[in-house]
Give the backbone structure.
Amino acid sequence: MKKIVISLSAFLILGLQATDINTNMHTMKEGLESIQDGFLYNSQEAVASGIVQIKKANEIFHDKDSVAKYLPEDKKKLVGVTLLSAKRLSSDLDAMSEYLAQGNMLEAAVLHSDIIKDCTRCHAIVRGW
Ligand code: HEC
């Protein structure tokens, strides 16, 4: 009985964690799309709201432990660079926000590709690419 309860709770915890990250990443994807739409359709509001969405979702990666749990065993040693990708994402979003506040859409748009790179740097490690 005890065994069943333990494995059931482990199952629930793992299940919840999986749902969590997917929901969170879905928000990141929506934020990225909003940024892209903003530049394509010339809407500063869409860019600004995309930035906020991604920044909020990125808060789950606040220290090494919060990143390490998503890394496969053989990639755990890369936790530092993985955390760095989240930090760089955050600072690139801040820079984009800053350019937006100055009304400098061109420089803000240049950062779009850096942001996609930041997403990919972490995914590459998490997925063992
Ligand atoms: C610090 C790490 C990290 C960063 C940065 C990151 N992600 Fe992810 N992402 C993950 C993890 C972990 C998963 C789940 C494992 C997987 O899909 O390989 C994931 C999965 C995803 C998925 C698939 C979710 C699903 O339901 O299958 C999408 C979409 C996604 N991320 C979007 C983004 C976008 C957009 C950005 C950048 C704005 C981003 N991510 C930045 C770690 C990160």
Observations:
- The pocket of heme C is lined by residues 21-22, 25, 28-29, 32, 54, 61, 67, 70, 82, 85-86, 89, 115, 118-119, 122-123, 126-127 (CB under 6 Å).
